[in-house]
């Protein structure tokens, strides 16, 4: 379990993370979502003790990363743009990591097989494709068989097969009871991978909920109604407990009921309708709406 307690991080006048608190629980994939520059990487770096919070603390299974006795056995991480010595073979890269963390040599073969690199383990990493480098990064994260795993934008630059592989892997790790946190700026990807979402913008918490709840609360799906009697229609819908707003073109938008129910209400009150249509909203739109202010601020404030 990861316990983020009121952490903040300033870089000069930039507030990268601003009083952030949330908990990442075991047995599920938690998506850590936010637009570019929201503070995801900074938060993950603070979880790993690579950056020190200006305030607050992060506890992993009750202790800070720095005070873990065998960190690689407690927490595995795949960071963005990781640098691997290009002249080394995959095997020697992992062996070096294993030996410096007192992890048995046999585990190197195990993780190479786990990520499907056993056939190329003697090749120089410098000649690896992005997908292979990513698999090697995952192998390193799994080396210490840790109960907690952090993945920072793991699907960036991967082809569809690689994306599916990472997704299945993360779900498998969570199913084994591990704590899995994965950052992304793509809502659509998280909807397929995560069970739980932590959404941040401008370094602040915007949402912390199950994926299903998030969809129900933020998807904004509604029914669009065009009628020559909008006032009366609005009264009928409101009386039936629905939330109604008027769109820019004068049509009504009703939230909280299916199109069929609205058709029935109109018919029961002898209201003429010219259109009753269900309007789905994608999760991506929900995410954009939620983080819109944060992004706008960034565009104005610049980096
Ligand atoms: N070392 C640093 N020095 C100065 N500013 C930094 C540093 N690291 C991050 N920042 C700033 O902190 C803010 C948050 O950056 P961070 O990389 O954590 O965001 P992110 O959500 O991971 O975004 P991205 O998806 O673009 O990586 C940004 O405004 C960034 O410019």
From TrEMBL:
Record has ATP-binding as a keyword: yes
Q: Keywords for this entry?
A: ATP-binding, Nucleotide-binding, Transport
Please tell me whether the keyword Nucleotide-binding is annotated for this protein: yes
What SMART domains does the database record attribute to this sequence?
Answer: AAA
Provide the GO MF annotations for this entry. ATP binding
* Residues annotated as transmembrane: none
- Give the ABC transporter domain ranges: 2-227
- Show the Pfam families listed in the entry: ABC_tran
Family, per the entry?
Belongs to the ABC transporter superfamily.
Protein name per UniProt: ATP-binding cassette domain-containing protein
Name the source organism.
Answer: Plantactinospora alkalitolerans
């Amino acid at each position: 379990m990861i316990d983020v307690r009121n952490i903040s991080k300033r870089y000069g006048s930039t507030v990268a993370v601003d009083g952030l608190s949330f908990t990442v629980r075991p047995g599920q994939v938690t998506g850590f979502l936010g637009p570019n520059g929201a503070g995801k990487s900074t938060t993950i770096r603070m979880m790993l003790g690579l950056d020190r919070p200006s305030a607050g603390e992060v506890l992993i299974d009750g202790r800070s990363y720095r005070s873990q006795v065998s960190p690689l056995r407690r927490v595995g991480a795949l960071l963005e743009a990781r640098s691997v010595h290009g002249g080394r073979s995959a095997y020697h890269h992992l062996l070096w990591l294993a030996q410096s963390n007192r992890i048995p040599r046999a585990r190197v073969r195990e993780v190479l097989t786990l990520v499907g690199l056993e056939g190329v383990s003697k090749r120089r990493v410098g000649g690896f494709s992005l997908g292979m480098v990513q698999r090697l990064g995952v192998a390193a994260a799994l080396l210490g068989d840790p109960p907690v795993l952090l993945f920072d934008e793991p699907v960036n630059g991967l082809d569809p097969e690689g994306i599916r592989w990472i997704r299945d892997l993360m779900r498998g790790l969570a199913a084994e009871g591990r704590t899995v946190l994965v950052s992304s700026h793509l809502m659509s990807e998280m909807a397929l991978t995560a069970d739980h979402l932590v959404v941040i913008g401008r370094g602040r918490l915007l949402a912390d909920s199950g994926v299903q709840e998030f969809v129900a609360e933020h998807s904004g799906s509604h029914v669009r109604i065009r009628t020559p009697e909008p006032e009366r229609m609005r009264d009928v819908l409101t009386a039936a407990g629905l939330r109604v707003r008027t769109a820019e073109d004068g049509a009504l938008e009703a939230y909280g009921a299916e199109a069929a129910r609205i058709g029935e209400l109109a018919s029961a009150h002898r209201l003429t309708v010219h259109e009753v249509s269900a309007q789905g909203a994608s999760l991506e739109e929900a995410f954009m709406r939620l983080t819109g202010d944060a992004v706008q601020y960034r565009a104005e404030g610049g980096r």
